[in-house]
UniProtKB/TrEMBL annotation:
Organism whose genome encodes this protein: Microbacterium deminutum
Residues covered by the Glycosyltransferase 2-like domain: 17-184
Protein name stated in the entry: Glycosyltransferase 2-like domain-containing protein
InterPro entries according to UniProt: Glyco_trans_2-like (IPR001173), Glycosyltransf_2 (IPR050834), Nucleotide-diphossugar_trans (IPR029044)
Domain of life: Bacteria
Length: 343
């Protein structure tokens, strides 16, 4: 049973490290950095990790670092790719709490202090996150809301992730204890598609998870150069990565969870269900092949034969448009629930 409580004020100025991995995102970096440097109520450390940018944006990173003593610039001589870049920054962080902020995203005003205050008040909490908003070019106006906190035990929160069958944290809205990052070794290179999801669940397996309710905690930028759009766009690849993430979690940390066996089965069912639902929305000249691959994946992951058969005949019966409308309504309801409750 989740616990909801009124937020408490921050005590002192806890040190927070914000790691900003950067590769050819010079046009976005100033916005991200300003959103961090304007944070109040914390002792701030900012680490920009440039992964050998090739578009001249390293100059912008150097200018930003030279303008503020709180900013440390780490320059890679060779491109190390995203996981190694993340981990390089995290390994150098010295704050009590850590945030990984992509150079194209931004923090909402006051987000670091709100998350740090929750950590201070709840020593058993390992991971804190909150509402995130998407934007394209101009940051949305921040609105003030009454702040409250929700906390979950390990089994409760991981159980909610298993029932969803997907990652429920975008990334910039998450803060984690640095000692735990050190213990876990940062992001796992075996999971380039879903290392963040794995890190969140491993943190959850070792303590409680909490959410700041009310105000937006971070802003996620949507654009054509998003890594997920340029490198990890395949739906089947995404689903395969999520399935592998759950498998690794229960293999490595299953003993820490009271209901590991049932949670694992729940995750398989949810991932299979997601594959079937995605099969309805595929389009284009290769739609038939993609639909077949998704249904086969669902079968392998444990979807009932009758369910797979139903989704196979949907196009043949001319019901695709109806299913798409149903899926659109379902995603809209899911978004509203996630925005309000965080799961």
């Amino acid at each position: 049973m989740s616990v909801r409580m009124k937020a408490k004020p921050i005590v002192g100025y806890p040190k927070v490290s914000v790691v900003i991995p950067h590769y050819n995102y010079g046009e976005y970096l100033p916005v991200a950095l300003e959103s961090v440097l304007s944070q109040e109520g914390v002792d701030l450390e900012v680490l920009i990790v440039d992964d050998a940018s090739t578009d001249g944006s390293l100059r912008i990173a150097r200018e930003q670092a030279s303008a503020d003593h709180r900013v440390i610039l780490i320059e890679h001589e060779h491109n190390m790719r995203h996981i190694a870049t993340y981990n390089d920054g995290l390994a150098r962080a010295s704050g009590e709490f850590v945030v990984l902020l992509s150079a194209d995203d931004a923090l909402a005003p006051g987000s670091l202090a709100r998350a740090a205050a929750l950590f201070q008040a709840e020593p058993e909490v390992n991971l804190v996150y909150g509402p995130v908003e998407e934007f394209a070019s101009v940051l949305p106006s921040s609105t003030s809301h009454q702040v409250s906190w929700t906390t979950w035990t390990s089994d409760e929160w991981i159980g909610r992730v298993c029932r969803r069958g997907r990652n429920i944290i975008v990334n910039p809205e998450a803060m984690i204890r640095r000692r735990l990052v050190d213990e876990l070794g940062g992001y796992d290179p075996e999971l380039p598609h879903s290392a963040d999801m794995y890190l969140w669940m491993r943190a959850a397996a070792r303590g409680k998870v909490a959410r700041v309710n009310g105000p937006t905690q971070a802003f996620y930028r949507q654009h054509d150069s998003n890594m997920h759009a340029t490198e990890f766009g395949g739906r089947l690849d995404d689903l395969s990565a999520v399935r592998k993430t759950f498998e690794m979690l229960f293999r490595v940390d299953g003993s820490r969870l009271q209901k590991a066996t049932s949670l694992s089965a729940t995750a398989d069912k949810a991932v299979a269900r997601e594959a079937l639902r995605m099969s309805v929305s595929v389009s284009g000249p290769s739609a038939k092949a993609h639909r077949s691959a998704l249904i086969s994946f669902a079968t392998e992951t444990g979807a009932p034969a009758w369910s797979c058969a139903l989704y196979e005949i949907v196009p043949k019966l001319g019901l695709t448009a109806i299913f798409k409308r149903f899926e659109s309504a379902r995603w809209s309801a899911r978004y509203r629930r996630h925005r309000r409750y965080g799961t």
